[in-house]
Q: What sequence folds into this?
C-alpha cells in the first residue's frame, strides 16, 4: 500500500507529524530560496516542515541564514539519485517550485514540477510564467507571488487547510496531465513531425529565396519557423493590410513580400494602397504552407 509506505518512510526520516513542503533541485541564485526561508520563518508555529533536497552555490548561505535566524522548521538533505528521490516526493504533502521573478525565466518548465506531478502530489508554483499556466489550467496546484513571501505563506496554509481528498485530487490531476500531454512517446512523435515539416519548409524557402534574390532585403530577413494556419481574403485594401500584418506576426516577414518598392518594415502597414504586390510565386508558396488565400 503506497499510503502506508509513505507513512513508514516519514517515520523513518523523523517527519511523521509534520505537514511537509518539499523542494528538490538546485540551490542557486536563480532559485529564489531566500524567499522560501522568509515564508518558513513566518510559519514556525504551524507544524509545517520545509524539506530541501539538493545542492548549489547558495546552499551554504541558506544554511547560515537558517542558523542565524533560528528558523527551526527547515531541513536540508544532500542530493538524492532520481531512482530514490520519488520516495521523498511521494511522502510529502506539497511540492514547491520557485525562481527569481525575471522575464527570461518565465518560459522555464522546471523538471521538479513534472517530478511532483509524476508522484501525484499538488504543487505550489512561485513562477509567473508558462509553468504557472500549466499547473493552474490542469488544477494541479496553486500560484504564489514570487515577490511576496506572505503570498507563499497564504498558499501553504490554504493547502494545509484543504481536505486530504482535495489535495489528492490535485495530485491526480497533475499526473493525468503529464500522462496525456507530456508522455515521451507523444512528445517524440510531435517533435519528429515538426522537424519533418521544418526540413520541408527550409528547403522550399531556400529555393524561393534563390528565385527572388534580386530583392536585397530577402537574404537578411530569414525568420524562424512558425507554421501558419490562417485563411485570408485578399480582395480589398483592408484585407491586404490584415494579411500583411498576419504574415509579419507569424514570422513570415518581408523576405516573401514585395510591396511596391520594398517590404513592410517594423509591422507598419499604414497608408497601404491597392498597389501592394504579392508575387504569384509568393502566394503559391504561402498556399503550399497551409494558408488558404482567396483573391488576387
A:
Amino acid at each position: 500500500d503506497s499510503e502506508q509506505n509513505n507513512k513508514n518512510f516519514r517515520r523513518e526520516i523523523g517527519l511523521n507529524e509534520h505537514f511537509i513542503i518539499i523542494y528538490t533541485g538546485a540551490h542557486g541564485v536563480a532559485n529564489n530560496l531566500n524567499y522560501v526561508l522568509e515564508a518558513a520563518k513566518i510559519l514556525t508555529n504551524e507544524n509545517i516542515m520545509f524539506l530541501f533536497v539538493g545542492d548549489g552555490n547558495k546552499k551554504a548561505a541558506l544554511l547560515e541564514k537558517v542558523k542565524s535566524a533560528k528558523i527551526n522548521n527547515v531541513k536540508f538533505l544532500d542530493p538524492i539519485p532520481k531512482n530514490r528521490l520519488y520516495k521523498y516526493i511521494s511522502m510529502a504533502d506539497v511540492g514547491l517550485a520557485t525562481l527569481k521573478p525575471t522575464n527570461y525565466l518565465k518560459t522555464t518548465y522546471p523538471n521538479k514540477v513534472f517530478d511532483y506531478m509524476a508522484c501525484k502530489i499538488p504543487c505550489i508554483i512561485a513562477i509567473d510564467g508558462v509553468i504557472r499556466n500549466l499547473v493552474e489550467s490542469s488544477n494541479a496546484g496553486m500560484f504564489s507571488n514570487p515577490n511576496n513571501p506572505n503570498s507563499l505563506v497564504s498558499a501553504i496554509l490554504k493547502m494545509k487547510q484543504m481536505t486530504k481528498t482535495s489535495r489528492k485530487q490535485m495530485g491526480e490531476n497533475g499526473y493525468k496531465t503529464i500522462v496525456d500531454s507530456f508522455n515521451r512517446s507523444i512528445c517524440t512523435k510531435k517533435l519528429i513531425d515538426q522537424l519533418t515539416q521544418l526540413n520541408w519548409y527550409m528547403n522550399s524557402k531556400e529555393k524561393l529565396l534563390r528565385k527572388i534574390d534580386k530583392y536585397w532585403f530577402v537574404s537578411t530577413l530569414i525568420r524562424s519557423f512558425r507554421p501558419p494556419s490562417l485563411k485570408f481574403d485578399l480582395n480589398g485594401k483592408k484585407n491586404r493590410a490584415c494579411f500583411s500584418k498576419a504574415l509579419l506576426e507569424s514570422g513570415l516577414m518581408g523576405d516573401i513580400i514585395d510591396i511596391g518598392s520594398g517590404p513592410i518594415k517594423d509591422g507598419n502597414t499604414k497608408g497601404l494602397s491597392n498597389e501592394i504586390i504579392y508575387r504569384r510565386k509568393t502566394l503559391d508558396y504561402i498556399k503550399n504552407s497551409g494558408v488558404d488565400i482567396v483573391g488576387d
